[in-house]
Design goal:
The chain is α+β, with helices and mostly antiparallel strands. The protein has a single domain, classed as Aminopeptidase (3-Layer(aba) Sandwich). It contains six helices and eight strands; from the N terminus they run E-E-H-H-H-E-E-E-H-E-H-E-E-H. It has an eight-stranded mixed β-sheet, sandwiched between helices. Helix 4 links the parallel strand 5 and strand 6. It is globular. It comes from Hyphomonas chukchiensis.
Length: about 200
């Protein structure tokens, strides 16, 4: 299995490789405002189109694999997510650039999205999955820790954000058997949430 294979879905979400055709859909979403909370400054500019162009360029180079997320039940745009810093040699990958519309947070959509991403990384024989998160995002850090990810520490003043502020970066990870355990836990959560 490859990280960028097509036909990437489960009962809840479908993940499609981010394409130029997604520009308008993403531009019209709340993700544009959220960019200022979590995206770093780039030398090419700090506007939506510069970021979108950057994502497509990095995808072309193979350093990130970005996806748009669609909710299966009604075809609604459900956000974006990406594999980062892919190292097939060392069998490690990051998962980041995650954004879901506010009305989908706390639903089965984010859980099913993580299940899909972690499951595919495991299927692609990754042995380490990293989650780089702004240290101020305590809610996301707690959610990953409940999943079994280990908090490896904080990289201080790691990056300048689009709004000009500096952010510390927390690094969490799942390795080896922790990955399989996280997948099982996510499957259980998805099943419980779908029955509720």
């Amino acid at each position: 299995m490859r990280l960028d294979e097509k036909d990437f879905h489960n009962d809840v979400v479908r993940l499609d490789l981010l394409e130029e055709s997604d520009r308008a859909r993403l531009a019209a979403s709340g993700a544009v405002q959220a960019m200022w909370d979590w995206l770093p400054v780039m030398p090419t500019g700090t506007n939506f189109h510069a970021y979108f162009d950057f994502m497509l360029a990095m995808k072309q180079q193979g350093s990130i694999i970005p996806f748009s997320i669609t909710r299966q039940s009604d075809g609604a745009f459900a956000g974006v997510i990406a594999y980062l810093d892919v190292s097939r040699t060392h069998r490690r990958v990051g998962i980041g650039y995650v954004w879901h519309p506010p009305e989908m947070r706390g639903t089965v959509v984010p859980v099913a999205t993580q299940m899909a991403m972690i499951g595919r990384a495991f299927g692609a024989r990754m042995r380490r999955i990293e989650f780089p998160i702004a240290a101020a995002n305590e809610r996301a850090i707690r959610a990953l820790e409940r999943l079994g990810a280990r908090n490896e520490g904080v990289l201080r003043r790691y990056m300048r954000l689009a709004d000009g502020s500096w952010a510390d970066l927390a690094v969490l990870s799942l390795v080896d058997a922790e990955i399989r355990a996280a997948i099982d836990l996510l499957k259980d959560r998805v099943a419980e949430m779908q029955m509720a």
